[in-house]
## 1
Amino acid sequence: MATTISPLAPKSVPTLPPVAGVRLATAAAGIRYQGRTDVMLAVFDNGASVAGVFTRSKCPSAPVEWCRARVKGGRARALVVNSGNANAFTGKTGRDACAFTAKIAAGAVGCKLSEVFLASTGVIGEPLPAAAFDGVMPRLVEDATDEGYVDAAGAIMTTDTFPKLATATARLAGTTVTINGFAKGAGMVAPDMGTMLAFVFTDAPIAPAVLQALLREGVVDTFNAVTIDSDTSTSDTLLAFATGAAREAPRIARANDPRLLPFRKAFNAVLANLSEQVARDGEGARKLVEITVEGAVSKQSARRVALSIANSPLVKTAIAGEDANWGRVVMAVGKAGEKADRDKLSITFGGFPVAVAGAAAPNYDEGSVKKHMEGREVRVGVDIGVGRGKARVWTCDLTHVYLEINGSYRS
Amino acid sequence: MATTISPLAPKSVPTLPPVAGVRLATAAAGIRYQGRTDVMLAVFDNGASVAGVFTRSKCPSAPVEWCRARVKGGRARALVVNSGNANAFTGKTGRDACAFTAKIAAGAVGCKLSEVFLASTGVIGEPLPAAAFDGVMPRLVEDATDEGYVDAAGAIMTTDTFPKLATATARLAGTTVTINGFAKGAGMVAPDMGTMLAFVFTDAPIAPAVLQALLREGVVDTFNAVTIDSDTSTSDTLLAFATGAAREAPRIARANDPRLLPFRKAFNAVLANLSEQVARDGEGARKLVEITVEGAVSKQSARRVALSIANSPLVKTAIAGEDANWGRVVMAVGKAGEKADRDKLSITFGGFPVAVAGAAAPNYDEGSVKKHMEGREVRVGVDIGVGRGKARVWTCDLTHVYLEINGSYRS
């Protein structure tokens, strides 16, 4: 856990209201860190609908495989998350550690193994000492309260510099429901999935298939539009839980139910808020970078160009150096391999044109651009000029702090 | 031009013998730098076969477009290369600068416009002050000698810390022919094409189509197997010239001519030597990294996995930190999206097993691995375990020096 808070952190940590049907607790199990919490439990006493999206890594962690197999069941009673050890690339030992953790959680909560969901974050390739959970699990279940969100968000941090929380309410056919979420990110963050771990909780009565549809659509322009360093984790996990404790609200069983619209909007706002916080806490980030690409042949094409820019070390180091180096943006557009016409390409920084129709802008406002580059939030706009596809992604600059964090993380 | 020579530089700069039919000269035209040469001319008094491979960027530089259109003609009389300005993203001005440069070169040499080849490297998006060539061109033609290779290699450097030269001889049906080459690289280097600029010269009588075939095959496991920072330049250019001045040798008109075999071997050795020097001079490089992937479903698949590892900032920072962090290698294998089976994956550092069949190696020789990581050359081996495809790529570590170079290059 880094000691200096990112200068891009939100001014304050939001206070999350309770979500009926969700209780949380944390403990220090001593998985890797000393003197801090490293395990969190969420209990859904009356169960919850569950949905999840996971890393597309071909070498996923054991907990990702565990969840992927069980999310189809659609029903959750408990979520156990630890930091310090990712339980990834741990072979049979890793699978055993999952089964063991689920068993003690199921025993303490009083549910089936298949109703326990797991996530782990931290070092890869070392066996997870799951026995450590055994000593803390009964007390976690007992201690869990409906106010534990900030502590829970803190317990799952690794190189994060601040806890990431978001909340929203929505009207669901006349009843107000709550949506809470927290996430961790920082490094090894790239689309498919965009963050390492994120969890969203609501008291709305949403059927699992509907929750899954909401999640799948919701991540496209939120978590999957964030890239810190192009490296996709083995462990990326986003789980959503809907307890249905808001009993006055109607149970939503179809994704195209028109009553779902305000909920969908609030749900997406929570995902957007959390994913932006992940970008704001990219390892070593000193500037939040928003990249908007328009005029591409399709949304997909715009997205690929935007990610090519967002993942370019040369663009990211230029932004770190407050250098309005649009030549490197041109380079990144070109290397994306998507349809582009150099002589139609236009680029803005902070809305100020720096390149127009394939050449330097004639009335380049150097002072305004310089001032924009010196700020905490840098906006890069690209108009490819060949179509109507548009996409937006978020990243951060590449700084010496990133190298310091990652050159000595394990040792 | 950096002041500190890369610690990975070859012990000495090779002395290149003359290649009959090739004369070289350099000058200080003041394009951008002060007090150094920044333009080089190669003259082929009796003409030469020419072949070229170029960046696949969708936003190529004006000289790349110039060469691509003219290389089909197969005939060269002059090559003009400048550093300091890439003449990329310069619109009509850029095309005009190419035409102007070619015109004064053709005038001074006494050849057609279509026999002049051009390359530029340096800052993107600023007009190339081609008029500066006008003052130096006649003297360049006059001064050109057959011994100017080291000076020529120096004139095209940008952030390179040492000139990159290589030479070889080969027997061509009883006659000894010479192959000389020089290159520049350093930053914005990634496959398709692998280096910014490289030029190869031979006195062998090779038909243009054969030279093109040699080049296309030769780059696959050499220049296109080198990545410094995953960023593909707008300007990558590799041109080969064959003067045919070795008149005793037979003219080779078919790529499958068996007499070509020893020449092909020597030609590929020059490409391999130059491309390795590019990796050794990656911006900020402190360690040369060789990544070998085997057991993939195909060579192409192995290559994609190898590049995913080579381009991972987390792998590169770990190597910079001398950390045998094979978990990040697993991550990079997983994110490549290629067929892999976590439980069959094995990883070595310097030949020492660190992970076997999907888990940490049981008898991990920590001392030997540590010693290997502390060296100047780091070898990462990955066995995917699902097929017979194999590929090898070269990169360097990601250090603070890379950030220093690229956070302040333009300003």
## 2
Amino acid sequence: MPLVRIAVPRHLDDMQLKHIADAIHESMVTTFNVPADDRFQVFTRHTDSELVWAPTYLNIAHIRSIVFVQITCNEGRTVEMKKALFARLASSIARGGAVLASDVIVSLVEVKKENWSFGNGIAQYAI
Amino acid sequence: MPLVRIAVPRHLDDMQLKHIADAIHESMVTTFNVPADDRFQVFTRHTDSELVWAPTYLNIAHIRSIVFVQITCNEGRTVEMKKALFARLASSIARGGAVLASDVIVSLVEVKKENWSFGNGIAQYAI
Amino acid sequence: MPLVRIAVPRHLDDMQLKHIADAIHESMVTTFNVPADDRFQVFTRHTDSELVWAPTYLNIAHIRSIVFVQITCNEGRTVEMKKALFARLASSIARGGAVLASDVIVSLVEVKKENWSFGNGIAQYAI
């Protein structure tokens, strides 16, 4: 059920996108109770003018390009699960070499389980 | 008030986008109590690397490209209204021929009615 | 903490994007209790076919291209703060000359403060 929007700088190539996509999905399966085949990801690529951030926030400097990961998911995960997801996302994405762990910005948007359709016009999660 | 974000594969042309846009709006007017002139839609087009999904989820196979429809709307619709919206979205979009009903993925994000401005800096829905 | 998604027509150049980005951030700092270095903005540029709206909604006509500003932020702001934000966003963006105040459409999505990571895999706002 999560729908993941990932905004990346334009200079990342398809191989780097694939690493990021796989890293995000693996992190969600491992820490966030997401089924392996529950995968829906959308990337947007951006020029320098289209991705804007301050040089430093909360003592974390952003020297290279940042990556935004916004995840729409069902409500109900604990704070501990969210912390585990964030930790794994940053380390797993950074392993690819194109993005620093300090530049992985994550935002969760939680919705009700009845708010999804996964094809054929059915609300698969509604009781 | 709904703001609709639609992510589509790059190979869809402007005529196909228009069909999808009209189909979505007609579905919302018919099933979701949306005024006919309350229409705000944003499309993003994506390469194959930028739209990622598993081949099958919940027994629905995705052989062709999927389309994500994410709707930010006011809270308060019933589950029955959501089901009616999903059903009509899938059938209506599929009628255009470019997208299968099984490939229409929908996500609703509900917000408070005070969370909108429709121009001129006014919160038109706030009491 | 806010993550701001701004959808603009393709004909806006980088200078106009910079004005809009600065105007949005200044508005949030001034009216919405956002720290000056808490700035995360993503622009998407769109063709005419990709931005769809009705000619008039709530007696506000859209003759030129509209701009969507969708802000994901922590819950807890008052209605008065939201009204102040909307007012300042419209006037501040319009000052750049490329966008009319009547064409600034704003959507707020509120989330829990534990739903963010600003780098290094840490949930900086979770207690």
## 3
Amino acid sequence: MNEKMIKTAIMGFGTVGSGVYEIIRDKSFAGETGDEIEVKYILDIRDFDDDEIKPMLTKNFEDILNDDEVNIAAEVMGGLHPAYEFTKQLLEKGKSVVTSNKELVATYGRELLETAQKNNALYMFEASVGGGIPVIRPMTVCTKANNITAIAGILNGTTNYILNEMFKKGKDFNDALADAQAKGYAEKNPAADIEGHDACRKLAILSSMAWGKVVNYNDIPTSGITDISLRDVAYVEKLSSVIKLIGYAMMNDEGKVYASVSPMIVPGENILSDVNGVFNAVMIRGNYLGDLVFYGKGAGKLPTASAVVADILDCSRHIGAKKHNIIWEETDEKIIADANEQTMTFLVRCRDNAQNIEKVFGDIEFVPVYDDETAFLVKDIKRGRLNAGLEKINGVIHALGVLDIR
Amino acid sequence: MNEKMIKTAIMGFGTVGSGVYEIIRDKSFAGETGDEIEVKYILDIRDFDDDEIKPMLTKNFEDILNDDEVNIAAEVMGGLHPAYEFTKQLLEKGKSVVTSNKELVATYGRELLETAQKNNALYMFEASVGGGIPVIRPMTVCTKANNITAIAGILNGTTNYILNEMFKKGKDFNDALADAQAKGYAEKNPAADIEGHDACRKLAILSSMAWGKVVNYNDIPTSGITDISLRDVAYVEKLSSVIKLIGYAMMNDEGKVYASVSPMIVPGENILSDVNGVFNAVMIRGNYLGDLVFYGKGAGKLPTASAVVADILDCSRHIGAKKHNIIWEETDEKIIADANEQTMTFLVRCRDNAQNIEKVFGDIEFVPVYDDETAFLVKDIKRGRLNAGLEKINGVIHALGVLDIR
């Protein structure tokens, strides 16, 4: 084996970046890939008073860009800019880039993959979805021998923790959120998590992977968990189910994709109902494989960093092997199908009377729990028809879909 | 992209082999790898009266070995011989081989991987563990950036189906087995499954992957599920747990591995308790990643065949890239630790009285269900000490360990 020293740069010395540094420092890779990995640069605009990393620190991106010894960089700075510009310039110089930056991959993934391809470099982003869970890589492989028909994932650990506390400990949403913040699972400004935007970007990446076409995250209807209450918990427990924030995508018969991020009712017999705490899980359905589930820690310094390091190692084995890249086509036709056409079962909560509800929806199943409101299940109805019906119902609180991938 | 035609041979036209043929015939791969795949030979000693495959059929292995156009062969014939000899000769000629043959990988894996490495070829075996579930490939990647500390897997669908029927439908072992046979989930001679040998070979492969050293399956203490009765089900349900046939391996502080295949009590809060029917799941614990679980169909024609095809595609991208190979070292020191030293919690069933049991084991917890026998939990005891204690107890029925990976 030709052992060589791979010199890398870490761009952004935050939580993930410092984790990447620690793993590379503490673990010897020579036995497994034949290549030693060394961190030559750490790029950050901040000052760090740490003698160990001082020799590597730079505030000047050009140091990395213009150093011919550096073949691989880890972009773990987050945000769109300057992450996009840095990544683009590195790839144009034929340097490979690995990243945990889901926002960048979801927004500029196609362009950056194309740039990588053109310049014989790699752009890899295992850490951008599911933290440390290997999902991008196995999905790349699965999609080769399978046609993916559906994806359903618990893609955000913060919201899963909050929902879990509501179900397991009877906390209301605000208490559960405060608890998540106290434990460091939720940020001070939790909007990106609790409103579903984080999960939406990850679903866009998975869908683009699955079908090889750009899925724009702005096209995915997204709702968060902020209006889930302990009353919802009581209804859903009566159905032997739980509520999970589900990123969902399914290809329909016309080759378009029903996609959404929303709190859904997950029946107890579905393995996703057992994904607790801050864990994530992604279910993929392939035409030959059936259902696969990947489960693990979806966030956190070292799990995410270890996925970044795995990508660095993979790059080091494939320098110049452009065949290894994923390709997403740009397409003019919208790949996202009209959500109104999707058939699903819904639990509806409202303040109307049974007679009026039955007049609108016909044969439904009531779920009696509280005296001051009415809840019912409407089975196998198109979302468009449901919404039209709800307009004729008084005091609609909300409707939750039931996860049942067929 | 340089598109080229990859010509392959399928050796063995049984269930998996015919699945591999169908997937390659029905799916176009050109868009994803740039390579078209074509089946040039199908090797089988049997005659097939099928016009479609006739042009490819051969009974002569030399046809494949001596055809310079064939770079990749799928060995899906099963058994040790002549699968070993064929694989070895192909690798020596620099042809890559992919396989679903767990027996061959568990027995000759190290030697065949070394032969591949020496001859710039690849030997891949994703389909040998977990059928269609991608576990070998993600494990290869995980192990690079992590030290694996433990593996626990439901590695055999037949036994999982039987245990599931016993728990969910109250069938006794023989009825559940007969049902599995009627449904085609168990073979007429089910010994390899129900006595744990199939799971043992898969655990040996996973352990060799995890720690890079040959784990000989003969060194793994293995017991099957034939003596699990509905009485065990009743006790274990009282503990809010289930029984699963678990392939278990954990590295101890001295760098040795506790490994076993046995029916274990899996607490309801462990996600493995929710793996039902013929599904498989593998849990891997990494020092950075924490717990990962891969879940899916562990057997079946098309799931397994799609894993074989994925390996063929991976080979086609890496022809000549020997760095892609896995290496298992041969080691003189035994890597398997003395099972008697492992600390675990056990449920014991016997026909002795409480007083005598407490005299032997001290502080224990009784699990009262039946009048004509006594069951109790002994917590955190070394297996050697448990066994010594059981010799002093009358009428021991059996002891089941509790899965609790720490």
